[in-house]
């Protein structure tokens, strides 16, 4: 798969996660294994899900999609987004070390974050480097 194709696929996945977070915050909470403790704080909890898993992911996915259009010129943003996912994976693995086995859903999240992050970092690194040569001045005609 080309770097552009890889980045486009990953970007669409991130955008879909963001849209799901904005439109279906209750389902995202359930998917993550979270619950609202106090019904009086349900609006705040839904707002947090919409902000973090909705708005943040939507913008991150759109930035990755923009980067996928020209992976050579936007290598930095693609790499940054990939590193953010790898950072989430590292944080989750620290939790495994400190807190114990997260079960199948937790390991699935580790694999997903590792896959998404590595795919973007590799795509950013595999994008061909284009070197621009300085224009050569026209030679003076022979006298």
Task: Kindly describe this structure.
This protein has 143 residues and is an all-alpha fold. The protein has one domain (3-126). Helix content is 74%, strand content 0%. The protein contains 5 helices and no strands. It has helices at 3-23, 25-32, 42-69, 75-99, 103-126.
Task: Describe the structure using short key phrases.
mainly alpha; 5 helices; 143 residues
Q: Could you write a compact summary of the structure shown?
A:
The chain has five helices and no strands.
Shape: elongated
Listing every helix as H and every strand as E from the N terminus to the C terminus, the arrangement reads: HHHHH
- Estimate the helix proportion, in percent: over 70%
Radius of gyration: 21 Å
Oligomer: single chain
* DSSP E strands, number: 0
Compute the separation of the termini in Å. 55 Å
Largest sheet: none
Instruction: List segments where confidence is low: pLDDT < 50 over at least 5 consecutive residues.
Output: none
Tally the structural domains.
Answer: 1
Structural class: mainly alpha
Strand content is under 5%
Mean pLDDT across all amino acids = 89
Specify the number of helices: 5
């Amino acid at each position: 798969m080309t770097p552009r194709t890889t980045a486009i696929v990953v970007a669409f996945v991130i955008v879909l996660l963001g849209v799901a977070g904005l439109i279906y915050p209750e389902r995202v909470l359930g998917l993550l294994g979270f619950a609202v403790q106090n019904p009086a704080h349900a609006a705040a909890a839904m707002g947090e899900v919409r902000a973090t898993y909705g708005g943040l992911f939507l913008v991150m996915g759109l930035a990755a999609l923009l980067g996928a259009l020209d992976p050579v010129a936007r290598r930095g943003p693609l790499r940054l987004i990939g590193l953010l996912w790898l950072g989430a994976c590292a944080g989750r693995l620290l939790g495994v070390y400190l807190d114990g086995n997260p079960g199948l859903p937790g390991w699935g999240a580790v694999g997903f974050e590792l896959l998404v992050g590595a795919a973007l970092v590799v795509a950013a690194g595999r994008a061909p480097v284009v070197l621009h040569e300085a224009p050569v001045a026209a030679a003076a005609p022979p006298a």
